[in-house]
Design a protein that fits this description.
The protein has 218 residues and is of the alpha/beta class. It is built from 9 helices and 8 strands. Strand 5 (127-130) and strand 6 (136-138) form a beta hairpin. Bound molecules: BIS(adenosine)-5'-pentaphosphate (AP5).
Length: 218
């Protein structure tokens, strides 16, 4: 099964992609994580993306399409993948259609994670992740079971993102409404769009996504 999680910054795309990966063996493909890795490595792509990401704008289509085309070609994607943060423009969606058709692959579902803008800033500004395995947490909504220890890998170092501040989140939200929201009618017209209430508790959102995908509750 190949799917897209679509939603604004802080909607819970990464949180749910990690859960689906662990429960169902689908591979999470996060363009945000890939770009942050490129920035940290100081690669050519990272140098081009850094300032754009810090401003909360979208990195150019050619860069992200190239990254995803390389990643989808890898063997571990053959069993199914979850696109988290891609596509984000109609041009990226069209490029995805082409690359899937070239590989004889298809898109099974697009999940629209609906969350009101006013709660997204609180979600994003309270977010942190395990420095070792990247598991996601939140100061208020999703704390580790043992304070200071990652539930997944036992790591004790955590990090916060440079673009997780109120000003940049507003810019990222603007980019979402202007450039990414047009994907909803794009996929609606193809009959693959499902909707979940991204404001429900995390377990309930997972249950709604699994129902949309036809998975039995985990
Ligand atoms: P990216 O990393 O994709 O960021 P984003 O889309 O802004 O999404 P986030 O990662 O902020 O949110 P999320 O939906 O994953 O939420 P999460 O699960 O963490 O992109 C970053 C930048 O890279 C972009 O701005 C752009 O510059 C560039 N970029 C990336 N892809 C690109 C592309 N395709 N084209 C061009 N540029 C691109 O949840 C947030 C917090 O809320 C967490 O702490 C979590 O614990 C908590 N939470 C989650 N669900 C719930 C819930 N149901 N209830 C309460 N709390 C919850």
């Amino acid at each position: 099964m190949n799917l897209i999680l679509l939603g604004p910054p802080g909607a819970g795309k990464g949180t749910q992609a990690q859960r689906l990966e662990r429960a169902h063996g689908l591979v999470q493909l996060s363009t945000g994580d890939m770009l942050r890795a490129a920035v940290a490595a100081g690669s050519e792509v990272g140098k081009r993306a850094k300032a754009v990401m810090e401003a909360g704008q979208l990195v150019s289509d050619d860069i992200v399409v190239g990254i995803i085309a390389d990643r989808i070609a890898q063997d571990d994607c053959k069993g199914g993948f979850i696109l988290d943060g891609f596509p984000r423009t109609v041009a990226q969606a069209e490029a995805l259609d082409t690359m899937l058709a070239e590989r004889g692959m298809k898109l099974d579902k697009v999940i629209d994670m609906q969350v009101d803008d006013d709660i997204l800033v609180e979600r994003v500004s309270g977010r942190y992740t395990c420095a070792k395995c990247n598991a996601g947490y939140h100061d208020k909504f999703q704390q580790p079971k043992v304070a200071g220890v990652c539930d997944i890998c036992g790591g004790t170092e955590f990090k916060r993102r440079a673009d997780d501040n109120a000003e940049t989140v507003r810019s990222r939200l603007g980019a979402f409404h202007a450039q990414t929201a047009p994907l909803l009618p794009y996929y609606g017209a193809r009959g693959v769009l499902g909707t979940v209430d991204g404001m429900a508790p995390i377990d309930e959102v997972t249950r709604q996504i699994e129902a949309e995908l036809g998975f039995a509750a985990a």
